[in-house]
Structures are given as structure tokens and as C-alpha cells.
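re: that chain from earlier
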Amino acid sequence: MSSRSRSEVSGWLVGEGRIPMEVTTKTREDPPEEIAEISLPAMARYGWVAEDVRTQHSLFRWSQLLKSWLNCIPIFERDVLRDIVALERVSAIDYVCHGQEGASEKFFYMYMWHFSQLYVRFPFEDFTMGVLRSLNVAPTQLHPNNWSYLQAFWVLCQSLYLQPSPQSFLYFYDTRPKSPTTWLSLISRPGISRLEAFTQSFKHFKDGFF
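^ sequence. v structure.
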């Protein structure tokens, strides 16, 4: 993407309904260092990952776009310290499957849909962390449709005054694929399903990571 006016981009995003923000009418330029990243070589060693995962750029490689979106969507629970994580853009050569090799600080990716549609908030509950650890996946490796299962199960347990646990949650699901090179999905085990599948299919989430 060139350094042309971002007003066209903002209007397109609002029209698609993918990022809730006001339409920008003024012209603004992207920082030169962000534009220069486009010419950098891509990271190697990820050929085993599915192509649609390892080739998908993020909308949030533009810092101004990320800042605009963060002004519209809450990320943190109320009354928690905001410095527990630093919310940063990704570079033009970063992909959601990339690991932490060579990084000066630990990091992880999140999709904007986690916050805008599924109401995930930082910090994660112990239950959520336990499920991710049990599945041995990063937050973005679990398909957004299946994050809705986590959220619904936690709300159900809270309403029944029960303590949710990863073991009780995963009792109801199998995983697919078994050796994931793409997003991991949870499949309800026949005869014991307690939650309906999320009616809205997330089809345009792939380019919204930061």
C-alpha cells in the first residue's frame, strides 16, 4: 500500500463493516519507516504452515489505523493496570504464524475480532489460559468461532456458580486438525454437546491481527 490518502481506505473499511471507526476525510501520510518495510524480505522457515496463514498481511501494519481502532474498542477489563501488555502494530513482514525467535521481548498476536465481537478482555481468565495451554496453542491459533465456545462456557459456569476448568470444557470437544498447520477448530463430541455453534461465521478475521 502506498502513502496515498488514507481517507479512501477508511471509507472502504467502514463500508465493509470490518472496523468500527469514523470515516476520515482529511489526507494523512504514513510514517516513512512503515512504508519502507514493504520492501524487506519475508521471514523463512515457515513453509510447513498453510499458505493462507503464512501469506496474510495485517491491516494493522499501519500504526495510525491501529490507534484509531483502539480508540473505539475496549481491550482491558475495568480497574486493571493498562501496562500489563503493550499494544503494537505488526510490521509489513510479520505474519500471525511467526514465533519469537530473534525478538528482544516476548509477544503474542491477537485478532481484533477477539475484542470487538467476542468481548475478550485483558488480562485473560485462568480458565482461558488453561485451555490454551492444554491445547498448546497461541490465542490466534484457535479459530475465532471456537473462542465463542470458551466465552459461552465461562458465562454459563458463572451463572450457575460453578468454577470453569479446562478439563471440564475440553471434555465436550475434539480438535481438528490433529497436527495443525492452520487454525485449530473444536468439534463437539457426538451426544454430549451442550453449546450451540456460533451462528455467525468469521470469514474476514485473517487480516486483523496485531
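Confidence is low (pLDDT under 50) at residues 1-28.
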